[in-house]
Amino acid sequence: MRRFEYHRADTLEQASRLLTDLGEDTFVFNGGTDLLVEIRERLRRVRNVVDIKQIPGLSDIIYDETRGLTFGALVTVGRLERLALVRQRYPNLYAAFASLGSIQVRNRATVAGNVCRASPSADTIPPLIADGAFIHIYSRTNRRVVPLAEFFTGPGKTVLAKGEIVTGITVPPAGDNSGKAYLKHGRRKAMELSTVGVAVSLTMEGGLCDDIRITLGAVGATVLRAPQAEAMLRGTSLDAATVKNAANKAMEECTPISNVRASADYRRDMVGVLTGRAIKQALEAFA
Amino acid sequence: MKRIVELTINGEPRDMVVDSCRSLLDALRDDLGLTGTKKGCDVGDCGACTVIVDGEPVNACLMLAVEAEGRSVETIEGLQPGVDVLHPLQDAFMRYGASQCGFCTPGILMMAKKLLDDNPRPTDEDIRFGLSGNICRCTGYTKIFDAIKAAAIEMEAARS
What we know:
A: Uridine Diphospho-n-acetylenolpyruvylglucosamine Reductase, domain 3, five-stranded antiparallel β-sheet, B: globular
């Protein structure tokens, strides 16, 4: 493995100082399942890693009916995947967690790490944005909370400034009138990066769609919303014809590229198929 | 920079001096001589290096040795309960021909052990899901699944 220096931080302040003081090519080292691969395959130039796993207070999972689900930056994908609360209240997050890497990877990988890596194909991002999640950010001068939808600025790029560290994520409560789904499309069931991922989170009132968020993964520079498709669906009963039209609109709203996993045309087609299917699956919560 | 790492391996306290960018996998194999854990892809895709750390299966290639400080690591060398005594999974793997070239076997056995510890009566789907992070290029998996099912039944019978 290409050589790098390993630093272990005991506090957020110390980690933040190391990140600013050690200069370029210094990265937060959390689960490490992506960073170590990038170092080994020479995909990223890394001189220093700052291990944040000994910092206290970043490993909690809390749920309350008003704030929702909050988990710290060190919480692994596997821990959340095994939580009954996640399986019951957030089937969209469960689907994303259970399809990320392998069991072994999920026992190390963190959701915060998957989010901060900011891959357009990251599995956890579409359902988190569709649920209206927030991300908690530490810096030595101020702490801020950012809607996850405003966190990404490009592939691998976020609003994080030098020395800022993500401390956790909050997902709003899952109400009884909500339906959620995440569908991942790949060539195989396990150990797969998503070719297209579509998440839908919606709420129903008196048989009509009160609100809906559709998010599209791996079909743009960041995970995208489909605002025009959403607008076509709000206030309707989500009948088959309206859903079909909205799914077609989502195909227009995405901006896929062709790469080793699929062509742009195929991805666009799959956005149409999966959007319709995800809405249908989200509605099964009311069946 | 080198660091001293104190950890427990297969129940025994061990100290090692490792370079801080060394993977747990390389430290196990090259520094401690525990070569039962295999290096397949070295990027977390194949599962051949699966070990159990504090009760959870992980890829030893995706963990630094320094991260194992204070932790308990179980490797294939610790699976058999005694000298000349095999774990029921190892025994079933031999009887069912679940190992051909054998390179994936240590990782699969560790994963299967964890699966049966958590879930003594797994369905076929549970076994497939549990082993989805382990690649075998020889067997086509059928005999591996058969061996795990047989071991599960035998372990259940031994308990009752």
